[in-house]
Amino acid sequence: MMRIAINGFGRIGRSILRALYERNLQDQLQVVAINELADLASVSYMLRYDSTHGRFSGSVEQTENGLLVNGDVIQVFHETEVSSLPWQVLEIDLVLECTGVVTNSDHAELHLVQGAKRVLISHPAEADVDATVIQGFNQQTLDFDNKIISNGSCSTNCLIPVLQLLNTQFGIERGMTTTIHSAMNDQPVIDAYHSDLRRTRAAVQSIIPVETSLAKGIARLMPELANKFESLHVRVPTLNVSALDVTLQLNQDVSAEQINEVLKQAAENELAGILAFTQEPHASVDFNHDPHSGVVDATQTRVSDGSLVKLMIWFDNEWGFANRMLDTALQLKNI
After folding, report:
1. How far apart are CA 225 and CA 209, in angstroms?
2. 158 a catalytic residue
């Protein structure tokens, strides 16, 4: 049994706990603590009810200092400083760092100082972490000595396994991506101040370009593609589910049918559970609560002039990523 603490109980933190119980993993991964600045009543309420993913299927009761989830005791803390968290006393094996603000080993190491054995960050991290793990790409490189690990981002988890597959099969000369991303909680419902001027604008009224580090993530994870990719990112007024529009210049001529067949075979075999494949005429809402890192929409695959390829890959930017966090936690448990 791995003892887990979740630091930051926002969209990803809550999705992880919900997915853990939905997958019946509580006999392997035991969440014993949550640290969240919001008051306990709000923590309890927002676990039970979610506008995107619906009602929690189990039972949630509020206790004097925490939660009772399906009868399991979870202590809830409201500490602003990691140095105040009792990870050693609670014998924490793994901290799921879900605040979204910890991006380097110096900050993550504070959890180790407090007695946790490992930290898994739900965010792209600086190069100084021990490992960045993308399930379906490099999870086999994770080893016992890795103490501070990043799980990448929802978009890298969606994209990287597909790039690896197509680069191995056909060779990628260069590429560009546009992430069409649902609105996030750093955007206001009506115009409000923000350090990013574009994000001062109402999330429900505009398509809003924002900065992205996806191209840097590609270069770090796949050095052979360094300086060969550029990425754009726009936020759209939907609650959940995003899409990657991917353009690739391959090293050889292909057909759309060939591309789709390679992706279909991978989704059914070595990338099963990570990548899915569909030929149905879907809209984004159909992939709400989908646990895959990405779903290739075969109806949107295009090839121009033999080697210029365009793909569309859907992904639930909350639920899919939360499930990959759990997959990595399970892997760490068995190291």
Report:
1. 24
2. no
